[in-house]
């Protein structure tokens, strides 16, 4: 080789280099192919694992969904969810203990079958109370209310008329008028049962305003005061349900009577929640007709030991009292 010409030696070297480069490139291609084959194998394995995992997760989800649906349809399952839990044993509720009955108070004695004046006026204007306490008031015989005997009309209402007036804040002016008139002794005999049409404090205020007098002037005029108060008292017990339209009620003021007017009142009924009109209600209203003024019963049947009290919104003035005041 050393004796070959220089150009031939160079050619051999170049050919060797080309052979080496070709072998190197071939080797590189083989290595790349082997790596790709390995990667493909790994990919296939990963794909198989992913498919298996997906199938497992789908199976688990199906089982979970099924169990959830069973829990909604039936009782919740116990343990692993394959067996139903035992049904709970119901515990009997304890028997309610009756509430103690509160002891009566002086003001509680006023309550009978009356309707509170504020509730009545807010709904349909002055209206009567339920006649539940006197069970058969409309057809009661003369002695049904213990008339003429030293016993209360109803034993569960022991407060007398004077005690009831003194214990009721809205009748304080009436109580003062009774004391100023000297008539209290006439109501101390509990054997004599009466009906009293009792004006409220507001009713007396209207009297003072309408007749342009003061409370002191009225309370100081004994004759006028006695006549007016006697005009509010009817002998015997007249429950609200006993009042009839057109009736005349003789009073303790000699020669003077009160008239009765019963009328139907229609009012709009409202929903207690939404305060919208839901219909109408009809009730009876009792008006008491006097000589100079008329009144409406705001609260009916307030029972005391010796009287039934009908609360009215106006002081009843007899014609004779107006005539005497004019002449004087």
Characterization of this structure:
With 328 residues, this protein is of the alpha+beta class. It is built from 8 helices and 9 strands. The strands form 2 sheets. Strands 4-3-9-8-7-6-5 form a 7-stranded mixed sheet. Strand 5 and strand 6 form a beta hairpin. Helix 4 packs across helix 7 (222-230). The relative contact order is 0.12.
Provide tags for this entry.
alpha+beta, two-stranded antiparallel ribbon, rod-shaped
End-to-end C-alpha gap: 174 Å
Structural class: alpha+beta
Q: What do the pLDDT scores average to?
A: 74
Reported for the largest beta sheet, the result is: 7 strands, mixed
Approximately how much helix is present in the residues?
A: 25-40%
- Low-pLDDT residue spans: 51-91, 98-112, 115-139
Report strand order across the widest sheet. Answer: 4-3-9-8-7-6-5
Number of DSSP strands? 9
The count of helical stretches stands at 8
* Fraction in beta strands: 15-25%
What's the gyration radius in Å? 52 Å
Order of helices and strands: HEEHHHEHHHEEEEEEH
Summarize the structure in short:
The chain has 328 residues and is an alpha+beta fold.
Layout: helices, strands, pairs:
Blueprint: H1 6-73, E1 77-78, E2 83-84, H2 117-124, H3 161-167, H4 172-181, E3 194-199, H5 201-210, H6 215-220, H7 222-230, E4 233-235, E5 248-250, E6 257-270, E7 277-289, E8 294-303, E9 307-312, H8 319-327
Parallel strand pairs: 3-9
Antiparallel strand pairs: 1-2, 3-4, 5-6, 6-7, 7-8, 8-9
């Amino acid at each position: 080789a050393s004796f070959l010409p220089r150009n031939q030696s160079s050619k051999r070297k170049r050919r060797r280099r080309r052979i080496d480069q070709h072998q190197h490139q071939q080797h590189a291609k083989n290595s790349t192919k082997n790596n790709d084959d390995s990667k493909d194998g790994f990919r296939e394995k990963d794909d198989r694992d992913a498919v298996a995992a997906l199938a497992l997760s789908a199976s688990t989800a199906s089982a979970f969904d099924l169990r959830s649906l069973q829990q909604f349809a039936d009782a919740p399952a116990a343990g692993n969810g394959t067996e139903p839990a035992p049904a709970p044993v119901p515990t009997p509720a304890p028997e309610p203990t009756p509430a103690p009955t509160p002891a009566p108070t002086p003001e509680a004695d006023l309550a009978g079958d009356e309707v509170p004046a504020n509730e009545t006026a807010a709904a349909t204007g002055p209206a009567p109370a339920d006649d539940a306490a006197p069970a058969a008031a409309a057809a009661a015989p003369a002695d049904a209310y213990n008339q003429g005997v030293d016993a209360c009309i109803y034993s569960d209402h022991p407060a007398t008329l004077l005690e009831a007036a003194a214990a009721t804040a809205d009748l304080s002016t009436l109580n003062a008028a009774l004391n100023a008139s000297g008539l209290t002794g006439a109501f101390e005999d509990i054997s004599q049962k009466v009906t009293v049409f009792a004006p409220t404090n507001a009713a007396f205020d209207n009297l003072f305003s309408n007749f342009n007098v003061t409370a002191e002037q009225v309370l100081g005029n004994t004759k006028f005061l006695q006549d007016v108060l006697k005009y509010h008292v009817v002998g015997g017990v007249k429950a609200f349900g006993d009042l009839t339209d057109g009736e005349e009620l003789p009073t303790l003021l000699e020669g003077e009577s009160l008239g009765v007017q019963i009328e139907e009142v229609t009012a709009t009924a409202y929903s207690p929640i939404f305060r919208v009109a839901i219909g109408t209600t009809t009730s009876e209203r009792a008006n008491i007709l006097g000589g100079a003024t008329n009144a409406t019963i705001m609260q009916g049947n307030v029972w005391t030991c010796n009287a039934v009290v009908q609360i009215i919104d106006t002081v009843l003035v007899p014609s004779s009292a107006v005539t005497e005041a004019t002449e004087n």
